[in-house]
Amino acid sequence: MAPVLRLPPAAEEGIRQFNAGFYFEAHDLLEEVWIERGGMERQFYQGLIQVAVGLYKIAGANHGGAVSLLRKGLTKLRAIRTLDTPLDLERLIRETETALAQVEALGQSRIGEFDLQSAPRIHRRPAVEEPAAASPGAPLEPKEETTDGNPAQGG
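Predicted structure:
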């Protein structure tokens, strides 16, 4: 049986940032977790980071960087697809494969046509109920912010 992975708060927030399109911020948060991990868990976080940075490269119109990082991220995620995580890795892999194919087809001259609204999102597996507030199959949403720019505190 594959090891069970629990997401620490920095990873949860990194995933929220990823899903909100803040790929560089997601990279920073996920890297905090990645640095402290080993084995399959380290590979899992590295794959997420590489996909995040690949999407960041798309936003910056860096075709070569985007293709390279999306490929590397996919290689990592495919290799650990049996890791028991609360995330739907198969869906993330499929969505990333689709994004990579689109970026490759667009090429450097047309990468600006990539629709980041259709970029991969990280979803929870339907059978996973942690944390209680997350809906099965739903992407992790960004935290609400208050008018002063600070994250809203849940009550």
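Summary: The chain is about 55% helix and 0% strand.
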